[in-house]
Amino acid sequence: MIEIQLNGDLKPVADDTTVHQLIEGLGLDPTKVAVERNREIVSKSLYQEVKLAANDQLEIVHFIGGG
């Protein structure tokens, strides 16, 4: 296990967790979120490739439709 910071809170995650796995584990739709990792935007096309590392700082913003 490693520990990351997610939206300001510490969160333990399994080693080799990808951004995609984290998003799905949170119950979010990967097509409806934006992810910033260590102050850099992660391209949606890389969600399944980017693996989290200890002490990563992530901000996840999810979009909610409405009108």
Indicate the mean pLDDT: 95
Q: Over all CA atoms, what is the radius of gyration?
A: 11 Å
Low-confidence stretches: none
- Counting DSSP E segments of at least 2 residues, the number of strands comes to 5
Q: How would you portray this structure in words?
A:
The protein has a 5-stranded mixed sheet, covered by helices on one side. The model has no long low-confidence stretch (mean pLDDT 95). The chain has 67 residues and is mainly β. It has one helix spanning 19-25, and strands at 2-6, 9-13, 33-37, 40-42, 57-62. The protein has one domain: Beta-grasp domain (Ubiquitin-like (UB roll), Roll).
Short description:
This protein is mainly beta.
Question: How are the secondary structure elements laid out?
Answer:
Elements: E1 2-6, E2 9-13, H1 19-25, E3 33-37, E4 40-42, E5 57-62
Parallel strand pairs: 1-5
Antiparallel strand pairs: 1-2, 3-4, 3-5
